[in-house]
Amino acid sequence: MDYPISTSLTISAQFLYRAYLGCHALQARKPQLLNALQCSEAQLRDPAFQLQIESIACLCAAARDELNRADVHSAIGEKMVPHGFSDHGFSAFFQPSFGEALIQLVTEQRLGGEQPIVKLMRLSSGDRLVWNDDRVAAPDLVHIVFALIYYCGESLAEGRFHTVKSAHFGHPRPEGFRGFPHGNMKDEALPCHFNRSSTYLEYHPSAMTKPVPRNNPAIVSAIERQKAVFARSRFEQANLAKLTYEYLFYLLDKAGLSLDAAAVTFGMAERTLRRKLVAEGISYRQLLEQVRRDTCHLYFLEGTRNLSEIAAKLGYSELSAFTRAYTSWYGHPPSQDSGASPALAA
Questions:
Q1: How much is the pTM?
Q2: pLDDT tens digits for 143-178?
């Protein structure tokens, strides 16, 4: 069925990249997905690249064909839930309140350009997270975003309070739609209603004001400083170093860390990228080390992961390589700093 689509929305390539990786994690083949998107994996890794909203429909159609299932949205959204600092939206898990966390999560998805894709509407019966567009938006995008928000919200709450009460959509029920099942409760999916006057998630009363169990002001502060650098880089056309820093930050535990891969993404020869970065006063290797060091600091502030997991999250294939790097940064091995956190020492 065809739906009227809001053409004012754009999708960041990195959002689509994570949806693409989610489809692949569900066993959809990468070549078929990329063929549907008509772009390369290198392009999807570009922080500055934007795609038209129709791209998400193409990805979902390819995933449905690949997986031989009509409903893929909730599964893709669940696969996109952030699990580390190199995933968009993970900083939301450390915000003071549940409402602040949800807004942060959605903001970091970079959807809709300058206009926020959702807005929070306060009501006595229960707050609503409303899709912020008067026209009907692409159902594929709405369902994936709402699934991502729902599953992230459940993770944020950690079972301590109720989150979403129901979901409402301004379009007809898509064929084969099975709702948003969660964990072992496959038969207790979130109630969903269609053909409504607006599109929103309805939350239980007082959910938005609930404190987030993992609130960590030090992490929030550090992330804000990084975001300020990213924001400035988007207005500085010649600052390739900042763009490369952001590129590396979101790929530490994924593919694309080599200089050659970055050069392909930025559409230039490897030696051209190397030369341009050196002209800006830094090498690619130095940038990668800086990103790893900054992100390592965030994981130590988090204090819930062991050293082997942190090493993997920073893109090191072996703990010994991480230990050597950490020792070069601080003059002593990471085990010496892990005593303050039992989780790190585990």
A1: 0.90
A2: 999 999 999 999 999 999 999 999 999 999 988 888
